[in-house]
Amino acid sequence: MRVLVDTSIWSLALRRRATDLNPREEALAAELRELIQENRVQMIGPIRQELLSGLREEAQYRRLKEHLRAFPDEPLTVQDYELAARFGNQCRAAGIAGSAVGFLICAVAASRNWPIFTTGKDFQQYAKPLPISLHAPRP
């Protein structure tokens, strides 16, 4: 099964030094490496944009951009954006605030039956009213 990897996991694994990771973070980075080896990782453009944004050095931007090119973007459709809006409305009605990108991630994952691999606590909240699942690292 494919897994939609959120910005938080990519950032942990690619933008931080391995020596700075605590044991939980090391396990998350190891899980991402396993998913990559198994060819199960999925990427969407908004996640790519988040990852490439805010880099201070042009060289760092170029290196990360080239590294991420190994992961083609899943094409997004009008239905993905419409479902994201619906999910946003559902969450707001349930008292759960969120971002447009977060709801788009949920919509893409739900429509393709992919779990989301994230450290974002917001996705735990989204999972209450929405038909999404979260990927848990293997022991």
Question: Please, could you describe this protein's structure?
Answer:
- The chain has 139 residues and is mainly alpha-helical.
- It has two domains: 3-68, no CATH class; 78-126, no CATH class.
- It contains seven helices and three strands.
- It has a three-stranded parallel β-sheet with strand order 2-1-3.
- Helix 5 crosses helix 6 (100-112).
- It is globular and about 40 Å long.
With strands numbered from the N-terminus, the spatial order across the biggest sheet is 2-1-3
- Using only C-alpha atoms, the radius of gyration works out to 15 Å
**How many domain regions?**
2
Beta strand %: 5-15%
Chain-averaged pLDDT: 95
Structural class: mainly alpha
Query: Which sheet architecture does the biggest sheet show?
Result: 3 strands, parallel
Number of strands: 3
**Could you state the order of secondary-structure elements as H and E?**
EHHEHHHHEH
Count up the helices. 7
Regions with little confidence, pLDDT below 50 for 5+ residues: none
Helical proportion?
Answer: 55-70%
Distance between the termini: 18 Å
- The shape is globular
